[in-house]
Amino acid sequence: MSLSGMDSAVLCCFSRAMRYSGFRVFLEGLRGQTGWTPVWRDPEPKPEYDIVLIGGGGHGLSTAYYLAREHGLTNVAVLEKGYLGGGNVGRNTTIVRANYFLPGNSEFYSHSLKLWEGLEADLNYNVMHSQRGLINLFHSDGQRDAFARRGNAMINQGDDAVLLDREGFRRHLPYLDFDNPRFPVYGGLLHPRGGTARHDAVAWGYARGADRRGVDLIQQCEVTGIDIEAGRVTGVQTTRGAIRAKKVGIVVAGRSGQVAAMAGMQLPVESHILQAFVTEGLKPIINHVVSFGMGHFYISQSDKGGLVFGGDLDFYSSYAQRGNLPMAEHVMEAAMTLMPAIGHAKVLRSWGGIMDMSPDGSPVIDKTHVDGLYIDCGWCYGGFKAVPASGFAFAHLIAQDRPHETAARFRLDRFRTGVGLMDEEGTGSQHNLH
Ligand SMILES: Cc1cc2nc3c(=O)[nH]c(=O)nc-3n(C[C@H](O)[C@H](O)[C@H](O)COP(=O)(O)OP(=O)(O)OC[C@H]3O[C@@H](n4cnc5c(N)ncnc54)[C@H](O)[C@@H]3O)c2cc1C
Fold first, then answer.
1. The ligand 1 atom nearest the CA atom of 223
2. Tens digit of pLDDT for each residue in 168-225?
3. Which end of the chain has fewer CB atoms at under 10 Å, N or C?
């Protein structure tokens, strides 16, 4: 039977129900891939919504998805000044883990990892979540003690951690320089459920899920002002006109300070650049995510074969979204220290993203001083793994006007009162030490 002759009504109905099934892929192979349609609509902004989310990154899209799925709120718009996934959600090094130490972060990231583990089935979208294991190396007795403590905290939280000694790791990671005179590898903390996910696919999967539930995803729509009357938010000004809204969520990552300033807020957040690098495709060599704390360097291998790695922040405030050579040199030096063989690989690309650095290394998911205005920010260089739980908690806060239990400590006023500071980085509440 000719497929083109198949009853189109039946096919259309079938397509709607079975998008991204194995059978659909097979069918499209036979039809010359002519049956796929755009994954989300491209609607004009309406004059008014119940909820407007500013920012179409991972956190904005997941918030929209959970508003619709968990709370039945679909008169929602996500306003994105560029294109969906063009910010940090599509620029990160894709690491997903739940190895946080302190109360507040520990349960939040544990919840996030559980959401990750069901995400592909939930979204019916292949986000290539790969739990290949994450290893934090240690290079001194003191570091070993610190990681043993962290591992115990992870296990107490219900997550997994295995402390391996030097010989235990030598078998797993034969390509490392274990005997480097400056940073000999003493062992490492293995987090077996840690790993990676395909970052763009996460944005696309959430976008598709939100769109299918009726959320308007509006690209090329920059918010330029926030309207407030008598202490209550009433809408936003955008490059595509004014949009009224009963509630507004700011979820713009590296631009948080700028957008919050539109509502008269000065956030305790600094924007810094973080760079990433990728080599040419190589045969499989690294089958974990490996993190080298002494040099602040981490590496994994993508499914295409490229070695994906990064290091520290460019240590000055910027909105440039591209990095600078001194930090590139520093990262390459750390790579060569840990893994001398990497010197044979060619670096193909590097890029940068704007990080919203909070003083204590932990995020904010909270109301603001303006009624109906909410903020989700301060993800530092670790907000990709938080995308599911952040959206879940932010949606809960916006829908119910009270924090979700996993995010109750992410309060904005902790920086003013000093109460509840989390200090995940162990650096104290000082910006410049991040
Ligand atoms: C190089 C690099 C490596 C990283 N590696 C990791 C990692 O391995 N693991 C991990 O967990 N995290 C990692 N991160 C951090 C993570 O990517 C971020 O914390 C997270 O993506 C930030 O949230 P988001 O996805 O919502 O941000 P974004 O994708 O940046 O979304 C914010 C959006 O808001 C939009 N916006 C801004 N201003 C306006 C406006 N006025 N109007 C409308 N829209 C606006 C922006 O265009 C942007 O699309 C990394 C980041 C970088 C740059």
1. 42
2. 888 889 999 999 888 999 999 999 999 999 999 999 999 999 999 999 999 999 999 9
3. N
Per-residue pLDDT tens digits for 97-151: 999 988 899 999 999 999 999 999 999 999 999 999 999 999 999 999 999 999 9
Strand partners, 136: 189, 291
Confidence (pTM): 0.94
- Residues 285, 111: Cα–Cα separation, whole Å: 31
Residue list, ligand 1 pocket, CB within 6 Å = 54-60, 79-82, 86-89, 91-95, 222-223, 251-255, 259, 274-276, 310, 353, 379, 381-385
Residues 233 and 247 sit within 8 Å (Cβ to Cβ): yes
In the predicted model, is pLDDT for residue 5 greater than 80? no
Q: Which atom of ligand 1 is nearest to the CA of 59?
A: 26
Q: Are strands 95-96 and 195-196 parallel, antiparallel or unpaired?
A: antiparallel
% of the chain surpassing 70 pLDDT? 93
For residue 107, the CA-to-ligand 1 centroid distance in Å is 22
Supply 9's token pair.
């009504």
pLDDT of residue 8: 43
Residue 415 one-letter amino acid: F
Distances (CA, A) of 297 to 17, 193, 259, 308, 310: 44, 20, 31, 11, 6
